[in-house]
Amino acid sequence: MDTLVGLSPIILMFVVMWFFIIRPAQKRQKTTASMQSSLKRGDRIVTVGGLHGKVDAVDDATVFLTIADGTRMQFERAAVARVIDESPAI
Predict the structure, then answer these.
(1) What CA–CA distance (Å, rounded) separates 52 from 69?
(2) What's this model's pTM, rounded to 2 decimal places?
């Protein structure tokens, strides 16, 4: 019984860490992976380095971006930070 009472603060700290740190990070990671796997031609994206571009082609592990007229660059899918939503603001 004394062992259970002694371990309860450690167990409580783990539960709190799980709900406030580990779980949200896993959720964010899953969302990012889903976004990176659903990239398609024509999407406007921002890379981790802040480079804006339009997806020209998608390969298994890479994404080809058109940055400017005649400028095409190749990036890893993991380098894509977010897709820019082009819906009109109301």
Answers:
(1) 13
(2) 0.71
**Paired sense of beta strands 80-83 and 71-76, if any:** unpaired
Cα–Cα distance, 29 to 7 (Å, whole number): 31
Q: 54: closest CA among 35, 38, 41, 70?
A: 41
DSSP state of 61: S
Average pLDDT for the chain = 90
41-45, long-range: CB within 8 Å, 24+ apart, which pairs?
A: 43/83, 44/83, 44/84, 44/86, 45/80, 45/81, 45/82, 45/83, 45/84
Where does 36-79 show beta strands of DSSP type E? Answer: 44-47, 52-58, 62-68, 71-76
pLDDT tens digits, 70-82: 899 999 999 999 9
